[in-house]
Amino acid sequence: MLVGFALARGRFAGRFLLDAVVNLPLVLPPVVIGWLLLLLLGRHGPLGAWLYAAFGLRLAFTTAGASLACGAMIFPQMVRACRQGLDAVDRGLEQAARTLGAGPLDCFFSITLPLAAPGVLVAAIAGYVAALGEFGAVITFAANIPGETQTLPLAIFSALQMPGGETLAARLAMVSVALALAGLGLSEWAERRLGRRLGLR
Amino acid sequence: MTEGAGLAIAFRHEVPGFTAAIDLAAPTPGTLAVFGPSGCGKTTLAAVVAGLLRPASGRVVLDGTVLFDSATGTCLPPERRRIGMVFQSPNLFPHLTVAGNLRYGQRRAGGDDAGFDEVVALLGLEPLLARRPRTLSGGERQRVAIGRALLSQPRLLVMDEPLSSLDGPRKDEILPYLARLKQVLRLPILYITHDLAEVARLADWLALMEAGRVRAVGPLGEIAVRGDLPLALRDDAGAMLAARVLEHDAARQLTTLAAGAARLLVPLLAAAPGTMVRLRVPAREVILATDAPRGISVHNVIATTIRAITEDPPRRATLVALDAGGVGLLARVTPDAVARLGLAPGAAVLALVKSMAIEVFST
Questions:
Q1: I need a surface site. Which of A8, A96, B191, B262 has the fewest CB within 10 A?
Q2: Which domain holds residue A57?
Q3: If DSSP codes are grouped into helix, strand and coil, which group holds residue A13?
Q4: b vs e for B213-233, b when ≥16 Cβ sit within 10 Å of the residue's Cβ?
């Protein structure tokens, strides 16, 4: 959200760099992202070693690590969606709010955020669904531990590796399709409902 | 203009391909109309006054309060200027009801509910209060936008072509509200437009803009009749006056108006004696005479002095600016007529104006 707003409205040094870093997972193979995370956050990585020493926190090959890997992969999508949500808010409305006595923060919370909300919410739902399907980054950073770091596609992949695992794979694939459809339906419904409540449609 | 009461705007702002260098001042309260073609810098002017655009240099002062001064680095943010803006598009908040929109600025201006009912009544907003902006017509939206700006308790109302996005009938729906607002509230208004009819009906002072500069600024009646300014070269050139209704003569179907020391007869009006109306006296409808005519249908024979004579070569015409007891009139006649009558600046001449030729806007 914050990064999206910074990129949508901010004019600052390093804006291009931030934009590039944010969008990196879009263009790099997921395995590379997973490996970079491992280098950075593994037990011997600069950040990982510090986290472990300070908080006893271990990310690589854990459930939290799997979540983090998913998060990193969908981050660009989320930022992009937030940015589009904010860009869609008419600047004229913000200017009007300012002349009516609202300071910049007041204006953001009373005008910009409520109007950008539908877009942001839809992005969040779509992002969650997409995260369920993460494969490459997770297997590299968090491995494939059943019940801990095994995402749905990882489970399907494992099932297919086993002789006679097609039935299990088919069932898991159906779950996957159902989840995806439910997610899409939910985001569509949320967008309509919020849009109506905000008087946009 | 000295500081104290009044609005003084001076600034310089450059964007690639366009330079605005504005310098103008007008008294307050009153309505200062800024008139000029599209792209002459009118909207830049509005944005600078409202604090939405920071010019490269300059100084903007409203009734003694410095809003912007590049010399001292002063630049009040828009929310602290107390300037009500009405934009070309209404910019209503779609997620709030009409009432929510109206109260948005009011709450931030200090909260008390005084004036809400008055503004709602003034703009006829009562039936709209519970509705959402998207269900309103263009004219209704703009009325809500005006009400919203008024309720933020501004010290100056800036209207940037508030009627330009509306069609003819919708304009006529809003204009009476604007005229009423002007009379009821003693609020200074900066009114930006490219429509001369709006100027004639609303303005007290007029600034003419051209390519990023102010060509002339002064009382409406003065600017409208100056032969050296572009207004006089328009087809619809003419005097623009404010007049008071003096008396009605129902039997003769005539109304007498007072504009300065001049008396004008027009077809019977509905307005009560004492009310103010706006007039336009088209230059091409004014006849000049050196002797009082007899046996003629014209009602208005006004004693005037010639202020200035300028040529209008494209029309093979001559513009004669007249002073009728402190009120400016303009006559467009042939150069031959000027020569035959021996007209010259300072000379006395009679201006003949048909009652039917005077356009009256009731406010």
A1: A8
A2: 2-197
A3: coil
A4: bbbbbbbbbbbbbbbebebbb
Superfamily of domain B7-224: P-loop containing nucleotide triphosphate hydrolases (3.40.50.300)
pLDDT tens figures, B213-224: 999 999 999 999
- Whether the CB-CB separation of A160 and A153 falls below 8 Å is answered with no
- Residue A163, domain CATH: 1.10.3720.10
Where are the CATH 2.40.50.100 domain residues in chain B?
238-362
Total structural domains within chain A: 1
Q: How far is B122 from chain A (nearest CA, A)?
A: 20
Interface with B, mutate which of A91, A98, A99, A105 (most B CBs under 10 A) = A99
Q: How far is A82 from chain B (nearest CA, A)?
A: 19
Count of CB atoms situated within 10 Å of the CB of B126: 10
Most confident stretch, A21-25, B149-153, B352-356: B352-356
CB-count burial class (<10 Å; 0-12, 13-18, 19+) for B10: buried
Residue bearing tokens 């208004």: B189
Closest of A166, A70, A52 to residue A127, by C-alpha: A70
Q: What is the tens place of the pLDDT at every residue in B297-349?
A: 999 999 999 999 999 888 899 999 999 988 999 999 999 999 999 999 999 99
Handedness of CA A178, A180, A181, A187 (dihedral sign): positive
Fold of B238-362: OB fold (Dihydrolipoamide Acetyltransferase, E2P) (2.40.50)
State residue B207 phi and psi, 5-degree precision. Answer: -115, 125
Q: Answer yes or no: are the C-beta atoms of A145 and B124 closer than 8 Å.
A: no
Q: Give the residue from B44, B88, B93 with the most A CB atoms within 10 Å of its CB, the best one to mutate.
A: B93
Q: Which residue in chain B is spatially nearest to A117 when comparing CA positions?
A: B95
Instruction: Tell me the nearest-neighbour CA distance from A1 into chain B, angstroms.
Output: 21
Residue A200: predicted pLDDT: 59
Residues of chain B with CATH 3.40.50.300: 7-224
